[in-house]
UniProtKB/TrEMBL annotation:
GO terms for biological process: phosphorelay signal transduction system. Its EC number is 2.7.13.3. It comes from Sphingomonas paucimobilis. InterPro entries: HATPase_C_sf, HATPase_dom, His_kinase_dom, Sig_transdc_His_kin-like_C. Keywords: ATP-binding, Kinase, Nucleotide-binding, Plasmid, Transferase, Two-component regulatory system. GO terms for molecular function: ATP binding; protein histidine kinase activity. It is an enzyme of class 2 (transferase). Coiled coil: none annotated. Residues 24-242 form the Histidine kinase domain. This is histidine kinase. It catalyses: ATP + protein L-histidine = ADP + protein N-phospho-L-histidine.
Length: 246
C-alpha cells in the first residue's frame, strides 16, 4: 500500500480577513469573469477557427463555474445566523441527512461513526455544513459506480505544533471513500482553485479549496491521503470551542 498525504498550503491571500471563505469565493468569481472578458477580447481580434473553438470552450467552462459559484455565494448569504457559535458537529451532521442522499445518489452507502461526548467547535454552523457538503460531493465523484463513504468524527489532542497544524484540542473529521484514489501527481494539486479531473460531472474544482479556507478561517487545517485504487481520506481538524463559551 502506497499512501500519499498532501497538506493544505498555509498561505492564502485571504488569511486574516473577517470572512475568509466568502472573500475567497468572491475572488474566485472575479477570476472566472476575467477569463470570460479575456475571451471576448480575443474574439474581437478575429482569431482563426481553431483558436475560436479553444476560446469558446474556455469561456463555457468559466461561465459554468461562475454560475455554480454564484449559487453557492447566494446560498450562504441567504442563511441566517452567520455568527460563530459553540456548535455540535454531531447536530450539524444530523441536520444534513436530508441532503446527503441528494448529493451522493443511491449507489453510495453512507455511514457515520461519531464518537460519544464529541467536543463542540466554534464556527459558523452553515459554513461547516457547506464545507462538508463539498467534501461529500467530491467523494461521490470519486465513486461513479458506487461504493462506501464513511464520515468519522472524534476528539484528538496535538501535544506540539507541526507542519500538519497547531497544537491543542481538536475535533477530527474524516471523510473516507472507497473510490478510485488519487495519483500522487494529481494529489499535489487538489487544493488549487478550479482544479478538477472530472469536467463531465459539472464540478467547479473549488470544493477542497473552499474547505481549506473554511478550516483556516476557524483555526483548523485539512489534509488529503490517498492510495491509488484503494480510496481517499480527507482529514479536517477544527479547534475545540473554549470551555464556557457560547
Amino acid at each position: 500500500m502506497d499512501i500519499t498525504t498532501v497538506l493544505s498550503s498555509p498561505t492564502d491571500p485571504f488569511v486574516g480577513q473577517p470572512d475568509m471563505l466568502m472573500g475567497g469565493m468572491a475572488h474566485d468569481l472575479d477570476r472566472m469573469l476575467a477569463v470570460i472578458a479575456s475571451g471576448l477580447v480575443s474574439i474581437e481580434r478575429g482569431p482563426n477557427p481553431q483558436q475560436l473553438a479553444r476560446i469558446a470552450s474556455g469561456m463555457k467552462h468559466a461561465i459554468r463555474n461562475a454560475a455554480a459559484l454564484a449559487d453557492d455565494i447566494a446560498d450562504l448569504s441567504a442563511r441566517s445566523g452567520v455568527t460563530t457559535n459553540r456548535v455540535s458537529v454531531e447536530a450539524v451532521i444530523q441536520d444534513m441527512q436530508p441532503r446527503v442522499r441528494e448529493i451522493l445518489g443511491e449507489s453510495v452507502d453512507f455511514r457515520t461513526e461519531i464518537a460519544r461526548d464529541l467536543w463542540p467547535v466554534r464556527v459558523f454552523p452553515d459554513y461547516l455544513q457547506f464545507a462538508l457538503s463539498n467534501l461529500l460531493a467530491n467523494a461521490a465523484d470519486a465513486m461513479p459506480r458506487g461504493g462506501v463513504l464513511v464520515l468519522r468524527a472524534n476528539n484528538t489532542f496535538r501535544s506540539t505544533a507541526s507542519r500538519a497544524g497547531a497544537a491543542g484540542d481538536f475535533v477530527r473529521l474524516e471523510m473516507i471513500d472507497s473510490g478510485e484514489g488519487i495519483p500522487s501527481d494529481v494529489l499535489t494539486r487538489v487544493f488549487d482553485p478550479f482544479f478538477t479531473t472530472r469536467q463531465s460531472l459539472k464540478r467547479t474544482g473549488l470544493g477542497l479549496g473552499q474547505a481549506r479556507r473554511f478550516a483556516t478561517q476557524f483555526g483548523g487545517d485539512i489534509a488529503v491521503e490517498s492510495d491509488p485504487g484503494a480510496g481517499t481520506r480527507v482529514i479536517l481538524h477544527l479547534p475545540r470551542a473554549a470551555r464556557g463559551s457560547f
